[in-house]
Design goal:
The chain has 388 residues and is mainly β. The protein has one domain: YVTN repeat-like/Quinoprotein amine dehydrogenase (Methylamine Dehydrogenase, Chain H, 7 Propeller). The protein contains no helices and 28 strands. Strands 1-28-27-26 form a four-stranded antiparallel sheet, with no helix packed on it. Strands 2-3-4-5 form a four-stranded antiparallel sheet, with no helix packed on it. A hairpin with a 7-residue loop joins strand 7 and strand 8.
Length: 388
């Protein structure tokens, strides 16, 4: 493992508090009867471990999923594409160093941004990685790496000239700090972001409803072994910390995902450390304040990683939960207007553990979830499920 690199949790272990999601009390119209989900065989590159971490579908016949593949001691970016009929591996940016992609945002089938991290084979702290799809190929775009090292975990584009990416950097004193970068159509640049006092802060996800209205979420650590939710808002001129609630009975509450359907309607999600382990956490923004809303929990520890909405009352969240046998299984939940409910769906077999890490259901006819499955204890393959 390379020092300083932040690794995503693999499917055979629920790691900390990850992402869930929910929408506000004003979104009260119930969903129609749930559709069927099915596993769609994606291509798997020649690798010991392969994961899809994020997916973006700008229309009904175009999706891009990104992640990483690990083989022969090297981690490389992985990109796969859905053309409306089948998935195929697409050539990722050719890196002189190793790296991975953790998030993707597409404004059209001809314009996408993907973000992550890169690092030297000899080790050392990570550097930011940003790649752009121009309709024909993926290419790496120059991106700043402030501090001793940095990585990007989330990205949101409202058009081809307005994108925001968030993550974390390591300061000169070795402290973890928030990182925000902005795309203006030609270059990426660092934008100042606040950090509460404590031992560290990071941002995991960002959602922009307009170029001047974005929310980013993550975690603030006031002290060792404690975690508090962190929400920051972009008003077109600056980023500021916005108060967000925590579960009072828990020493660890984190936010890992956010979605905004409008400047005054957003949801931030994550998990907190409960009596039985990781428990889903959902918060909503009404335009004036954040509040905790009910979220579904399954038997055994569970976490939600990602959420997407076709409309304010039509949302899907995905993640992972622990079966009674101790083997992790995929989790899908549906927003019912006032609460989240679990959705029946298939789990891959054979499996030593599986998880869904990203979802995009903005186009209702193309609702796609991606993640990974471990057929054996030493292998891991990409996983795609689609709603029919």
């Amino acid at each position: 493992m390379n020092p300083g690199r932040v690794l995503r949790p693999r499917s055979y272990a629920i790691a900390g508090a990850i992402a869930a999601a929910a929408l506000g009390a004003q979104m009260t119209v119930a969903l129609a009867a749930p559709e069927m989900w099915m596993i769609v065989p994606p291509p798997n590159p020649a690798a010991t471990l392969a994961t899809l971490a994020s997916v973006s579908c700008p229309d009904s016949t175009s999706c891009f999923a990104v992640g990483d593949r690990f083989a022969h001691g090297k981690d490389r970016p992985l990109v796969e594409r859905w053309d409306g009929t089948a998935w195929s591996v697409v050539a990722a940016p050719d890196l002189a160093v190793m790296g991975s992609l953790g998030a993707v945002s597409c404004v059209s089938s001809r314009s996408c941004m993907a973000v992550g991290d890169s690092f030297a084979p000899t080790g050392g702290l990570a550097r930011t990685l940003i790649a752009h799809w121009d309709g024909g190929s993926w290419s790496r775009i120059a991106s700043p790496t402030p501090g001793q090292g940095a990585m990007l975990a989330g990205v949101s584009c409202v058009d081809t000239s307005n994108c925001a990416a968030v993550g974390e950097l390591t300061s000169a004193s070795g402290i973890q700090r928030t990182l925000v970068e902005r795309w203006n159509g030609s270059t990426w640049s660092v934008i100042a972001s606040p950090n509460p006092s404590g031992v560290g802060s990071s941002l995991s996800s960002v959602s922009c409803s307009t170029a001047s209205a974005c929310f980013a979420v993550g975690e603030h650590e006031p002290s060792q072994q404690t975690g508090r939710t962190l929400v920051e808002e972009w008003n077109g001129a600056s980023w500021t910390v916005v108060p967000s609630p925590n579960v009072s009975s828990s020493s660890v509450s984190k936010l890992g995902g956010v979605v905004c359907t409008a400047p005054n309607a957003c949801a931030a999600v994550g998990s907190y450390l409960g009596a039985q382990g990781s428990t889903t956490l959902a918060e909503t923004w009404s335009g004036t304040s954040w509040r905790v809303v009910p979220s579904a929990n399954v038997a055994g520890n569970g976490s939600l990683f990602s959420v997407s909405c076709a409309s304010a009352n039509d949302c899907v969240a995905v993640g992972v939960h622990a079966r009674s046998t101790g083997v992790n299984a995929t989790l899908i939940e549906q927003w019912q207007g006032t609460r989240w409910t679990t959705v029946s769906h298939p789990n891959p077999t054979p499996s030593k553990g599986a998880s869904l890490l990203g979802v995009d259901c903005r186009v209702r006819a193309t609702c796609v979830a991606v993640g990974d499955n471990a057929p054996t204890a030493s292998t891991e393959s990409t996983l795609v499920e689609q709603r029919q």
